[in-house]
Amino acid sequence: MTDGLNMNRQLLVSTLIDYAGRNHGATEIISTDSSGNTFRSNWSLVAERSHLLASALASVGVKQGDRVGTIAWNDYRHLEAYYGICGMGAVLHTINPRLHDSQIAYIINHAEDQVVLIDPDFIEVAERIAHLVPSVRLWVILGDEAPKSPAAVKYVSYETWINEERETLIWPELDEWAAATLCYTSGTTGNPKGVSQSHRAIVLQSWATCTGDGHNVNSGQSILLAVPMFHVNGWAIPFASAMAGAKLVLPGANLDAAALVEHIRSENVTFSAGVPTIWLSVVQYLESTGKDVPSLKQIAVGGSAAPSSLIDVLEDKYGVSVSHVWGMTEMTQGSAGRFTHRVERLERDEQRKRQSMAGREIYGVELSLIDSEGQKVERDGQTPGELLARGPWVAGSYFRHDDESTHLESDDGSWLRTGDVATINDEGYITIVDRAKDVIKSGGEWISSIDLENAAIAAPSVAEAAVIGLPHDRWGERPLLLVVLHNESELSQKEILDVMKPQVPSWWLPNDIVAIDQIPHTGTGKIDKKVLRTQFADHSWPAAT
Length: 545
Description:
7-stranded mixed β-sheet, 17 helices, 29% helix, 24% strand
């Protein structure tokens, strides 16, 4: 065999921040803290301070391969941690602060975090769980000051700590296959599972994010990161932004519509990404105030499907192109919804059909479908099957987890079982029918809770909708529709059903509709149907159903 004659350079996270600092040093990083204060940094400063953080970590004995946790919002110090931790060869472990204390403690113990960097907003979390997490030797408060330490908690101020006089750490030459990040699944069933991404995987997915068929992240963009940085590496955008040298706007804890719109307008944001609930609230705010967002050209929506009514108003009234993406903790991004050249030439109705899907298979993640017997399902856009994935940034296994049921070994290699039920058409467009555990099985047939939710949200009175399957004596399961109504609206089942009827098969229509004050969400913004199923476990169907 003849080898290529290329130089042997490793694909490392440290190369991303070195590139950004060297070539896009003056490009701004805008950050807002919980008090509403704005801090203006840039890629040069982030690069410099990430080295200081790495040196500080080394000074307390953190070594290559050790896990360092973060419990923090989207801000400039968290961004520095992304690079300082990975750059020195330790593993960045982003922890979801919205989890229950017991889950946070479980995750820290499972990862064996040595140091935890924590936003001042979460100091009480540290004090509640410190005695439960013996591996943590130091809690670093991401601010100028640290509180007086209780006996069980050793605190230090981030600014004081990284600015102590010590030799600056030079990035080590790591193996690109070494672990760089660790993120745990949301744990809606059983304990959360850890997903570890290598340096190689992060660089490759950053490239994919920068491509035109990804998110088209480039140096001309101003990006509002509405995706939490503790969720799936911020959809890879913090890494891709460094690769491209893009301006980055980090909104901190406040993700209400007024704050986001102000960020977009003041920082001339061109691109953003987030879950549908964020964009629903933004549109409602724009409609009620008469404001607009002239700089914003594109948003990526993931986590769940955006209602067609939301896409229509964003594109037709505000000129914002909407693209669906699909992914999960185990791979970050697996699809992208940007139109191909051929689709660009189609009529608007045909474009909208594809736009409502969960994006299109992108290079780097190969997708496949199997039926309940494990046989491959055709890509006809009609036949559903369990969605499988594989690729260089798809998890091949879980961190310290031996459950073999999460992957499928076949004649052509190993595949991740995503837990989603989907269809794929001959253009590579994906339609997520449902999570496997959320598909409603009625009379031996499947009903998509997602399609029902999208149909219901089109009703003028409905602000948000969730559908769960509940036991039914005749049909096995039937759908219950739960709705949050707009202010001053009253529940009219007839009005909602009349809107839904043209959109779904008649036998899919919910057997009952209940108005509730709010729909619970997971820490990553998805509807928490486990909570709803528990809450409505004793629901009685109307007599006529």
